[in-house]
């Protein structure tokens, strides 16, 4: 009886755990956007002012609408001119311009339709021979580094476990990389789970 109850408990955790964690993450993100964006809405335009209870997700909806609106404005000539003037103004502010240019360049690179960033999962021999880690290619090494080394290298981001958003950069010759026939999503699952989730060969989705 005790063994059966234990099995039921583990089965319940396996079934309810992922669902509960997924909803908790989604609700936490929605709540975060509400806390950050909703206070910026003028009182006379904020529906929460007139309703008996706050609208969940209002901040996220407003943010999406705002981004679409900004994108639509900057698509025309006048909006493009404003964007250039804003860019030039921020680029003259000490310290802030460094963060601004870096963030802008990263987003432009990632959001390009033909971007090679995080397209492939690879195996890298690190930190010693016969020891391997999973990494993600972010493009070819260019600029001053390539000029100095005079060789073709690939930028590889090595994420950490269990937080794949932190990590470090290695520049490695392509011949020393072992490309995995898996999607980036599957590789991230293996990294986050510390190898508990098995990495199986799967057709990559590059759409």
Write the layout of secondary structure elements.
Blueprint: H1 2-37, H2 58-73, H3 77-90, H4 96-111, E1 121-125, E2 132-140, H5 143-149, E3 153-159, E4 167-173, E5 178-179, H6 184-192
Antiparallel strand pairs: 1-2, 1-5, 2-3, 3-4
Describe this protein's structure.
This protein is of the alpha+beta class. The protein has a domain at 121-192. The protein is 47% helix and 14% strand. It has helices at residues 2-37, 58-73, 77-90, 96-111, 143-149, 184-192; strands spanning 121-125, 132-140, 153-159, 167-173, 178-179. It is flat, with a radius of gyration of 23 Å. The model has no long low-confidence stretch (mean pLDDT 84).
Task: Name a few traits of the molecule.
207 residues; alpha+beta; five-stranded antiparallel β-sheet; 6 helices
The beta-strand count equals 5
Query: Which residues form runs of ≥5 with pLDDT under 50?
Result: none
Radius of gyration, rounded?
23 Å
* Overall pLDDT score: 84
Distance between the terminal alpha carbons, to the nearest Å? 50 Å
> How much strand content do the residues show?
5-15%
The helix content, as a percent range, equals 40-55%
Output the strand order for the largest sheet: 4-3-2-1-5
**Looking at the structure, what is the overall shape?**
flat
The topology string of helices and strands comes to HHHHEEHEEEH
Give the count of helical stretches. Answer: 6
The SS-based structural class is alpha+beta
The main β sheet shows up as: 5 strands, antiparallel
């Amino acid at each position: 009886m005790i063994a059966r109850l234990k099995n039921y408990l583990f089965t319940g955790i396996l079934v309810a755990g992922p669902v509960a964690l997924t909803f908790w993450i989604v609700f936490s993100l929605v709540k975060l956007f509400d806390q950050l964006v909703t206070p910026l809405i003028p009182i006379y335009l904020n529906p929460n002012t007139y309703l008996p209870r706050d609208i969940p997700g209002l901040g996220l909806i407003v943010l999406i609408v705002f981004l679409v609106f900004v994108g639509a404005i900057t698509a025309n000539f006048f909006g493009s001119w404003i964007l250039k003037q804003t860019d030039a103004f921020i680029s003259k502010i000490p310290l802030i311009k460094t963060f601004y240019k870096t963030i802008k360049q990263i987003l432009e690179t990632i959001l390009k339709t033909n971007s090679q960033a995080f397209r492939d999962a690879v195996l890298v021999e690190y930190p010693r021979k016969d020891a391997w880690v999973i990494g993600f290619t972010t493009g070819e090494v260019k600029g001053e580094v390539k000029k100095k080394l005079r060789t073709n290298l690939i930028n590889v981001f090595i994420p950490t476990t269990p937080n794949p958003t932190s990590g470090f950069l290695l520049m490695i010759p392509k011949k020393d990389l072992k490309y995995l026939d898996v999607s980036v999503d599957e590789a991230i699952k293996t990294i986050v789970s510390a190898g508990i989730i098995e990495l199986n060969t799967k057709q990559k989705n590059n759409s």
